[in-house]
Description:
The protein has eight helices and no strands. The chain has 273 residues and is mostly helical. Helix 2 crosses helix 3 and helix 3 runs antiparallel to helix 4. The protein is globular. The two termini are 30 Å apart.
Amino acid sequence: MSNNETNFKFLERFDKRVAQLAKQAEKYVHTDPDSCMFKLRLMVETMAKKLTNLQMRGDISQDLGAMLGALERGGIVPRRQADSMHAIRRDGNAAVHGSPTPVPTAMRRLKEAHKISGWFCKMIKRGSKIQLREFAPPEPPTPVDNQTKSLHGKIDKLEESIEQRRIATRESLLMFGPQENVKEVTRRIIEELKALDNVAAAAGEPTIDADFVALVMAMDLEQIEEDPRHGGNSRQARREAEQQLDTIKQHLAEREKAFLAERTFLLEQRKSL
């Protein structure tokens, strides 16, 4: 793609501010990847605020992480889009706090922003028919030397490995898989619980009230809740669940710090050559 073209022209007729931020990020992706991430984070924040104002009721925190969590739990932002928006938020925050952004990271997030943009347009203008063209990576202003290409390849592999670990971690915390029909799975589980009730009744055991069971889809880590159906103390169960959640969050935070340190180390190696 030449320097005069853009992947985000279609956005202009839906939201000029979002389009402007996307095109600025695209412009900076090679020359200033940190600024690219600043713009992408602001783009995602602008999207989240607009979706919150259009489709959410009540007071919602203006913190981006909280907004995305509320939109996801409300079923407004699907998991795939939410994951990409969180990734942009996370890398944007890292850039703000001084962690250098490699070009491959910025390019990966720019490509994700392109996909999110097509979905966003359909959300804010129902019935819109958008044929999203394939993302064309912007060309660097000057040719990239072999050492830089090698570094970019290592960073790409690192990005892919951490992405797979994030997905695996999230999948392990979810009640439903990414491709499953939530309503259908919920219906099936309720039927299975009722069947178990019948078996328990026939055996003279106390039954489980299927309608009382909390079938909560853990769309975000904050959705992990206690399940008091076995007669335990619900307050104690909640405390235990919160402690487990804190442990998981701490572990994930440590993994993210290790990832950023490894990414920074690769960049520092390049500078010393």
